[in-house]
Write a structure and sequence with these properties.
alpha+beta, binds zinc ion, 102 residues, 16% strand, 3 helices
């Protein structure tokens, strides 16, 4: 049985990576770059977003971390026995965390 903290971290890591992918797509669209041709490493903003997403640990806000390198803690609110919601007061990021059924 994995502990809840680890499961939450895994969820938040996925959100961090998703955001980096979105920054990649948005930035390449803005610059009119061809996604499969141009390396993401050639655009510093995109490179940094992926680096931060890969370095993500713990339960801080993945959006503040990937976008600005800032560590903002998330506020945990109980919704039901199965679901908690984690919110960032700085950027309004919200994550619904589904707890495993024991
Ligand atoms: Zn945030």
């Amino acid at each position: 049985m994995p502990n809840l903290q680890d499961l939450l971290t895994t969820d938040l890591q996925q959100d961090a990576l998703q955001l980096a992918t979105k920054i990649h797509a948005d930035e390449f669209k803005r610059l009119n770059f061809d996604m499969p041709v141009v390396s993401p490493d050639s655009v510093p903003l995109v490179k940094l977003a992926y680096e931060r997403a890969k370095m993500f640990r713990g339960t801080k806000c993945p959006h503040c971390w990937v976008k600005h390198g800032k560590e903002h803690s998330l506020v945990n609110k109980y919704i039901s026995d199965n679901v908690d919601v984690y919110t960032c007061k700085s950027c309004n990021y919200k994550h619904y965390f589904t707890k495993p059924i024991i």
